[in-house]
Amino acid sequence: xxxxILVTGGTGYIGSHTVxxxxxxxxxxxIIDNLSNSDVNVxxxxxxxxxxxxxxxxxxxxxxxxxxxxxxxxxxxxGIINFAASKAVGESVAKPLLYYRNNLDTLINLLDxxxxxxxxxxxxxxxxTVYGEPDENPVTExxxxxxxxxxxxxxxxxxxxxxxDFVTSGAPIKSILxxxxxxVGAHPTAEIGELPNGxxxxxxxxxxxxxxxxxxxxxxxxxxxxxxxxxxIRDFINVVDLAKAHxxxxxxxxxxxxxxxIEIFNLGTGIGLSVLGLINAFESATGVKVPHxxxxxxxxxxxxxxxxxxxxxxxxxxxxxxxxxxTMRSAWNWQNRLRERGLM
Length: 344
Ligand code: NAD
Ligand code: WQD
Description:
Low-confidence stretches: none
Shape: globular
Distance between the termini: 38 Å
Number of domains: 2
Mean pLDDT: 97
Number of strands: 13
Helix content: 25-40%
Bound molecules: nicotinamide-adenine-dinucleotide, UDP-4-deoxy-4-formamido-beta-L-arabinopyranose
């Protein structure tokens, strides 16, 4: 057995896929999640895939005493992967304090306790949202950070700064900041996936729900952008590929493979795909049609952004491997599983 890893937000979408990969790689996992955006039954899915049920603590990371109790009860945690955060961009505009409190208090509490409990490293879930509308694509880690367009995006920028300041102060910890592009898809077993709350705001859950007939049609937000087909361009990264990068990042910190105490990596495929292109990929991969119509632009959308993942490819030795067709099939199989379970 390798070391013990604390995964905050581990019953969530990316967290649950990462717990599976950590366990498959031989790590012992303790999850903390307040179930504000996930279901405890996710633990069953994780167990079905990996054959192991992770330890689970239902608690809020903003509660310092609860976190301290967790570290006391689970001695020997060597690393943390911090997924726990609120992540709905629109909601963050309406409820900024909720976002600043939840996302920043969670991080500060974890950092505060790390030296006390000899936790060596923390992997942080950041986002390509820090690049705003990039001056050029594909985006490298050296691209300028643009002023955040939402409180949610701002929490990611501030979190990166908090971690950097703490490490720079001489704190005895290491950190890897992972900037995700657009994570999509589900585990190929369809045992775990994304559980959208209410009407989905993100493209893939809306698309799969439309294909299922739950929604009448998908609105494509704008076809008058400066892109080949006029729709926005994103870098859609498979969630299992993304999860695997966290295991590599954790290993890198624990085994002191890095010179720097803080490192940043883009996690994307390096391929920019348009919204209309993605709909085509889904239809050809699954044979299922997605009724859709073009509507006006969505306020605040970035026109085009995709990753230059060279640094992650070369330094981490990680590469996104899953084809967009396989990813679309996994998203569709997951949607079907939710229907079978009567959840959608
Ligand atoms: P998610 O909502 O599915 O998972 C987050 C989990 O954290 C949920 O299970 C939620 O219940 C839990 N949580 C939230 N606040 C908590 C708290 N205070 N204490 C304990 N648990 C708490 O989201 P996700 O898509 O898996 O995202 C994971 C991380 O990756 C987040 O930090 C998110 O901002 C970041 N990220 C996500 C995307 C994306 O498109 N999904 C892109 C870039 C970055
Ligand atoms: C993708 C594209 C939409 C829904 C968001 C956050 C970002 C990051 C990932 C966390 C856009 C278009 C969407 C629909 C559509 N999260 N779209 N019809 O906006 O790229 O990024 O999630 O860090 O911070 O902002 O993702 O899935 O919402 O949209 O046409 O019904 O799909 O306009 O071009 P986005 P998304």
